[in-house]
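Support request from a user on the community tier.

User writes: "When I paste my structure tokens into the form, the page sometimes reloads and wipes my input. The last time it worked, I copied everything first. Here is what I submitted, just in case something in the input itself triggers the reload:"
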């Protein structure tokens, strides 16, 4: 391996789910699970002693919640990426967080974490500064009438939806059957249409705009 492994911490109070998550991630050669914890108090103590690139956090914990823990971690320097997990659709709670806090956060349902490859891809993308939203939620999303996202062309919306799933440009090209240059051109047009500031991380801000300007069916 030519690069350092992504250091991951898992905070989950259900033993079977914790074992599932840890086992899945430990199978990845570019991911190292540095510690696991079942409570906020235990996690805080361990975070003080360990450098972590990505924290995988259950929202519901016996002595608090993963959102509060993630917000506290976001004040660290450097701050880790956060992957929030929930058994229920808690996307509205995710959206209520300040934009600057959730910039390097991702969100998955626990149903999606049973797909080990999807979990690993989300951890890797989050470590690289991207935001990933649960693919099942993304696929159910439709533009909100009158929003900036609603003004995108159908193809641009397809590209933006792929970005929200955490796909790289190459993966988007392969999924949509278009050239890499075409993806780059679409992204440039999307960033302009969404009026993303030049100094911002465009992919992250595009995902946040996607979340704010879409509704979910079903």
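"...and here is what came back when it finally went through:"
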């Amino acid at each position: 391996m030519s690069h350092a492994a992504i250091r991951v911490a898992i905070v989950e109070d259900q033993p079977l789910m914790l074992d599932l998550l840890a086992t899945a991630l430990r199978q990845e050669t570019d991911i190292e699970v540095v510690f696991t914890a079942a409570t906020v108090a235990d996690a805080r103590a361990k975070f003080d002693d360990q450098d972590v690139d990505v924290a995988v956090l259950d929202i519901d914990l016996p002595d608090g919640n993963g959102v509060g823990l993630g917000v506290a971690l976001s004040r660290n320097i450097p701050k880790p990426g956060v992957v929030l997990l929930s058994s229920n659709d808690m996307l509205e709670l995710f959206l209520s967080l300040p934009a600057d806090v959730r910039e390097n956060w991702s969100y998955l349902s626990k149903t999606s974490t049973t797909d080990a490859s999807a979990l690993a891809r989300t951890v890797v993308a989050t470590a690289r500064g991207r935001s990933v939203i649960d693919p099942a939620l993304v696929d159910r999303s439709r533009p909100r009438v009158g929003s900036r996202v609603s003004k995108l062309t159908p193809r641009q919306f397809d590209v933006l939806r792929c970005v929200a799933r955490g796909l790289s440009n190459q993966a988007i090209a392969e999924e949509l059957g278009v050239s890499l240059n075409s993806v780059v051109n679409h992204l440039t047009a999307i960033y302009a249409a969404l009026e993303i500031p030049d100094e911002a991380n465009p992919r992250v801000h595009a995902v946040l705009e996607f979340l704010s300007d879409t509704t979910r069916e079903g």
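Agent notes: The reload is a front-end session timeout and is unrelated to the input. The first helix runs from residue 15 to 26. The longest strand covers residues 31-37. Escalated to web team.
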